[in-house]
Amino acid sequence: VRVSAKAEYSKYSIEPASPIDFGAMVKGTKKTQTVLLENKGTLNFKFRIHQASELASTLESKSSKEGESAPSATKRSVRRKLSSLTQAHLNLGMFTVFPCSGSIRPWGQQKITVECLARQEGTCEQQLYIDITGT
């Protein structure tokens, strides 16, 4: 009896790389940008986008200063002002991200929309994480 197996980990790409910059906007206008999450491996994976906690942001900043990698290799950040996870959208202040979770088949891709509605004057910035896990 011949038995074989091949172990792999999730392989993915995120375009564009962080940060996403909407630039200067006129109050009351809306801009949209798209992030492409692509499965470059041979296994399905699930993704979930959530807002970074202040503690996670502090840890990432600290490890960057020390020349180390971020706390988890499966987390990628997108700098934007966003909020707590709802079923399909992530909202906070001027920003909305959707979809916030899903599954991507091997060699598949998912477009993630980031909208900015400039309701108030000032600069907004927030860090998000994209968690990628096997199925």
Please tell me about this protein's structure.
This protein is mainly β. The protein has a domain of 72 residues: Immunoglobulin-like (Sandwich), CATH 2.60.40. 9% of the residues lie in helices and 40% in strands. It is built from one helix and nine strands, in the order E-E-E-H-E-E-E-E-E-E. The strands form two sheets. It has a five-stranded antiparallel sheet, with no helix packed on it. A four-stranded antiparallel sheet has the order 4-9-3-7, with no helix packed on it. The longest helix is centred in the middle third of the chain and has 12 residues. The protein is elongated, with a radius of gyration of 17 Å. 20% of the residues are buried. About 19% of the residues have low confidence.
As residue ranges, the low-confidence spans are 61-86
What is the SS-derived class? mainly beta
Second rung of CATH, namely the architecture of one domain: Sandwich
The neighbouring-strand order within the major sheet is 1-2-8-6-5
Largest beta-sheet characterization: 5 strands, antiparallel
End-to-end gap: 29 Å
Spell out the helices and strands N to C. Answer: EEEHEEEEEE
**Strands, count:** 9
**What fraction of the residues are assigned to beta strands by DSSP?**
35-45%
Q: How would you sum up the global shape?
A: elongated
What is the radius of gyration? 17 Å
The CATH homologous superfamily of one domain: Immunoglobulins
- The CATH class name of one domain reads Mainly Beta
* Average pLDDT level: 78
Protein name: HYDIN protein
Pfam family, one: Ig-CFAP74_2
